Fold each of these.
Amino acid sequence: MKKIDKAMADAYSREKNKYIVIFLSIWLVVSFGVVLFAESLQFQVPVLGFPFHYFMGAQGSILTFIILLFINAKVSDRIDQKYGIDEEANEQLSYGKTADH
């Protein structure tokens, strides 16, 4: 496994955590903010025949979360490449050294 210095590891963790907080904040706003306040703001856009706030509570927030997971995976891969972390090389180095569950 490639060793990296502490400053670089801290920068890597800080950047990954920054994006996690951003994505979770977006999900929180979409899941609770839209559902709770869309009806009171008279935001009447039907989606698949349902009021917007009802659709977001039933399916929209879940779809948004799934999309955010894919975006987070892509962003994480880009950050790993930026800091020179290669997942396949790490798996090859640690093969057989960990307990199988």
Amino acid sequence: MLVAGSEKSVRMMYTHKEEMLVKLRKWLMISLAAMLATGALAAGGCSSKSTSTDTNTSGSTKSTLSGTIKISGSDTMVNMAQAWAEKFNTENPGVVLTVAGGGSGVGIAAFLNKTVDFANASRKLKDAEKSQATTAGLNAVTTVVAKDAVTIIVNSANTMKDITKEQLGKIYRGEITNWKDVGGKDATIVLLGRDSSSGTYSFIQDEIIGSGKTYAKSMRNLQSNQAIVDEVSKNADAIGYVGLGYDNSSIKVLTCAGVTASVDTVLNGTYPLSRDLNMISNGQPTGVMKAYIDWILGTEGQKIVAEQGFVPLKK
């Protein structure tokens, strides 16, 4: 049996022990948080600040990922890249993403000048660009993030349905200038293409025009895929090329050598003008950049690829 004074002393002793335990728990939590933050920064590279997560009172995981990622390049990829950035940012509000287009050449030039973290490119790096990267002290690493089909488009009134790579080569080199020479009506072909900074321009150069040969001087160089779609939809005699994601009801897409551009024909390699869509970084991505590229390659990122009309890496 305890007297009042002794009971009070015992309670004070327990209260003191509880305070010590609380202080010890706080010290352990602070130390653990510091260890996690140090590890995250060490793995994060220049753009990463933190890769930790918190659990809120409802039990769901809330991201505290933070950092800045700058991206520039392919006009073909720009709508998809913006959709990726917006969705990723809603899930990771601490990450600041900036996305700019301008063409693959523009993005690669920015990468070589070390002003962006990722260059979006609808073509492979050229040998000269690889040499420039090495000279600049960069380790250019290409990650394939989606696939695409370069589609050949004409006006909806055009009676053509199919075209071969050989016919395209002659048209874009200026060797064929009238639709009747490839099975169409008697009318001069209005030739549309991208500007020279475009990855699609380079792709057509390599796959259609041929090494050592040049585009026809009559070709109108437009600044974007959308500009080509808009012009073809208004001009009955026009022909152009755009990424698969720009196909819509205002234009007609020709089959190429009898093959329709689709998810299946791109993935099985039967569509003749298939290509990879790439993100180029300095070394393997780390920290917040790795988190972003992993997310793009994951379920949500690849779902957006399909929503934007391009081809996910896996069906």
